[in-house]
Amino acid sequence: MKILFASSEAHPLIKTGGLADVSGALPKALRDLKQDVRLVLPAYQELLARAGHLTEVARLALTGSVEPVRVLEGVLPGSAVPVYLIDAPLCFDRPGNPYSGPDGKDWPDNAQRFAVFCRAIVELAQDRVGLNWRPDRVHCNDWQTGLVPALLSLETPRPATIFTVHNLAYQGLFDQAGFLALDLPSTWWSMHALEFHGHLSFIKGGLVFADALTTVSPTYAAEIRTPEFGCGLDGLLNQRAAQLTGILNGADYALWDPASDPLLDAHFSRQSLKGKDANKQALQQFFGLPTDARLPLFAHIGRLVEQKGIDLVLDILPELMRRPLQLAMLGSGQAAFEAALRAAQTVYPERLGIRIGYDEGLAHRIEAGADLFLMPSRFEPCGLNQIYSLRYGTLPIVRRTGGLADTVVDATPASLDAGTATGFVFDAATPEALLACIDRALRLYTQRTAWTRAIKNAMAQDFSWARSAQLYLKLYLDLYRAT
Ligand code: ADP
Predict the structure, then answer these.
(1) I need a labelling partner for 224 at 20 to 30 A (CA). Which of 242, 319, 380, 389 fits?
(2) What is the per-residue pLDDT across 121-131, written as a single tens digit (0 to 9) for each?
(3) Can you give the residue range of the structural domain that contains 442?
């Protein structure tokens, strides 16, 4: 089967979060299943610098683009997956983050930028760029590709479309002038199409028009059909419930395995845990914390936003710092959270290590060196760090939501007895519930035999992409209706 996989980021070319990990790994896993899958991405400035050898394969005149748009072909580094890059310099040849400027605010022309990207994807999907390659399925991801299923609905024949929601909170909302500027069919200014409470909604292009909808965990698939998690779209998602499924993300163990991870100070495995101590010591040194092997080292990596429950961590910090533990955090995001963490570090220099920024290598070293991983998310479509933590024997402390609920087994007396415990799970999104859960973890940490057993059990969990890729392939095969 020929599959065009459309995304606004893919590791290792460009990454801001979990979407990149998925878009870098799932196409590879589908290729391992003998499918002809090709990736399409915007040619951001930073990405072009990393893309290696590229060939221009087409030049397009697109509605909404005052310049000709080039299609460049290369391969996803470390794989055999062909990549098409949409090179529209006015849209993508600028420094920094794919979605926001140096001031941290969204680029003001995001609607035009990603509309150009979507129109280019449609040309590829309809084999109008001279490649002589016509995909059977187009798999779109998040709002940046949301106009693709809508635009393809105007074409016959056309490939079937799949739209995956990686985070429903990011919807690509723009004002009505933005809608008018994009030259889309005027009938789409309707609550039954792209309008969302007086705004243009890119994500609705996917949610309304795609033939199949997926999200990245079974629990999140159920949650987004409720008002609490539906971000105003639960009504629409309930209408489309028959087309909506949850498929858990996998981990790319070629990149995230402590037995072979080249970014680590020492390797370790379930059979030989010794190297984990060396990683812990190196991490303590890196963060300027006392190198004490006995103190439990907690960690957090992620975007510093409310979704991730950073405010809960800040709320309990004074209490936490009274306990015998250390905490190392890596992240960037909302300025207020960044400032609060920096300030806290000066208060607790012996206990708290903070790095503000984005650092892929350090993320690996934290996973390897920490004992426990904090992930108290308010909602979490799938979450990858807890899955990486399991493999690195770093027991996750998570809230029971979305993919966190689907991947971590709470350490209760029963699950510890049965040998199925892999972490610690709490329910209420409150500082008290988080602290109580941490205290449970601290108690288990002092019981060395039970602790080591839980670590080994966590490390034995298999969330590799092979299984999830099979589920996507089945979904692609089941989609006969539309084409
Ligand atoms: P989300 O997609 O909501 O940001 P996920 O847990 O699904 O969260 O994926 C986050 C990915 O981004 C993980 O691979 C994580 O290691 C990485 N990441 C997030 N913040 C940072 C950071 N500051 N430095 C390095 N890696 C980060």
Answers:
(1) 389
(2) 999 999 999 99
(3) 274-462
Residue nearest to atom 20 of ligand 1 (CA): 302
Burial of 334 (0-12, 13-18, 19+ CB in 10 A): middle
pLDDT band at 104 (very low <50, low <70, confident <90, very high): confident
15 found inside a domain = yes
Residue 360 and residue 436 in one domain: yes
Q: Is 369 in the pocket of ligand 1 (CB under 6 A)?
A: no
C-beta atoms surrounding 103 within 10 Å: 7
Residue 262 belongs to some domain of the structure: no
- Say how many Å lie between the CA of residue 392 and the centre of ligand 1: 16
Domains contained in the chain, number: 2
Are 37 and 178 in the same domain?
yes
Nearest protein Cα to ligand 1, atom 9: 18
pLDDT at 481: 57
Q: Return phi, psi of residue 369, to 5°.
A: -90, -20
- Number of residues that make up the chain: 483
Q: Is residue 114 included in any domain, yes or no?
A: yes
- Please list, in sequence order, all residues whose beta carbon lies within 8 angstroms of the beta carbon of residue 48, skipping any fewer than 6 positions away: 54, 85, 87, 93
359 close to ligand 1 (CB < 6 Angstrom): yes
Q: Residue 266 corresponds to which tokens in the numbers above? A: 């020492």
If asked whether residues 71 and 124 sit together in one domain, one would say yes
Q: Are residues 285 and 202 in the same domain?
A: no
Q: Are residues 321 and 181 in the same domain?
A: no
Mean per-residue pLDDT over the chain, rounded = 97
How much of the chain, in percent, has pLDDT values that exceed 90?
A: 97
Residues 297 and 355 occupy one common structural domain:
yes
Is the CB of residue 248 below 6 angstroms from any atom belonging to ligand 1?
Answer: no
Q: Which residue carries 């310049």 as its tokens? A: 67
Tokens for 75?
């391969």
End-to-end CA distance of the chain: 13
Ligand 1 atom index nearest CA of 332: 23
> Mean pLDDT over residues 183-206, rounded?
98
Reported as a single tens digit per residue, the pLDDT across 276-321 is 999 999 999 999 999 999 999 999 999 999 999 999 999 999 999 9
